[in-house]
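call fold(seq) -> tokens
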Amino acid sequence: MHTPPDGNRRLDSWKAIAEYLSRDIGTVRRWEKTQGLPVRRVPGGPGRSVFAFTGEIDGWLRDADLRNGATGQAPTAVTKLSASVWKWAAAVVLAVAVSAAFVFAFRSRASDGRVTMQITELGVTAFDVTGTERWRYTFPTEYRTFPGEVGRQWVAFAGTRPAGYAVTSHRQMRDQRVLGGELMAFDAAGGVLRRFSFDDEHRLRGTVFGAPWVVTTLAAEPAGRVAVAGHHYLWEPSVVTVLDRDFKRTATFVHAGWIEALAWVGRDRLLIGGFQQARDGGMIGLLDPSAMNGQGPEQPGSPFYCEDCGRDRPLKLVVMPRSELNVVTGARFNRALIEVLPDRLIARTVEVPEESPSQGASDAIYEFSYDLELLGATYGGKYWDKHRALEASGTLRHTQEQCPERFGPRQIHVWDRASGWQTKPLHPIQ
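ret:
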């Protein structure tokens, strides 16, 4: 397991978290629900896939002691205290595969209560804190609506013009024709304020790719701008656009690959995550929304070059190559999911998808600064579980100790405007 210089470690299961706290798993689960123990869900993973950072747990323990003194109501700090105390804040988790039970809340101007919304194939429903339905929006019956993998995810903000945002992946007519997905903005009473669908046409490798576009994810900011991503219904090109508060497009970025994660990390910084075709690996990138009318760093004549796109390029792009397990198992592309923490970014590449909900996915975890400088990289515990299973079956003929990747991912590819592409090794050759 990668250990940063400050001693902060990642714990990859309920068992590991419980052992660190010297408590049983049931107690640790209860502390998370009732006392705010900082346990995170793996983006895109099943409900049981959790992790935590020891530094954040140590900070939570100290805070609990300060809050409760000698009353005995809070857990006391264990002896394993990190040298640094992480300030716990609400993290923005962008998942690609989310459950229908995931809901977020916003405050309505018309009520003092909180409102939650859920989206299904039938429509969008809002509930108050007691679970009573406040309003319902029903999708038209002339087509079938697919929430999709991220379609059940929505975000909302209060303010002078509060709005809740929801996306649908795509729609299918009775005659089997496919329509693209939609981004919808709702007011607090359930009225539709605005709609957006991609109708783009872009030319790559001599082929024009047009509608339908599947909406993959969105990211809204309190100031009112919304970033939304989509990819072609059949093929790999993806599009990201930024909309102002009236849903007018202000910028468009085209990518040869998949974009399945977005996050605002500053007023002039938009983070993207997904997969890049040209270098065949999970991708995380940084865009300037005031200068993003363009594409990735592809060369003219390349099959991945957009012939009719603007001239803008990303601020930075990082590609994380497929791992040994991804290649040997023939798994699908190792797309990168992203999580924004108060002090750093996490990119998780799914190297081997989960075979069952209890098993979990085999993943690689990369930690970056906000300007995409790599802080550390490691493989999760499930990765090495899968490695041992492949050893036992004879698919792999070396052990974890003999594995060329035993220290973690071996390299990344980094592009920036000043230096172009560079391959950076992560571990010394041994």
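The chain has five helices and 29 strands.
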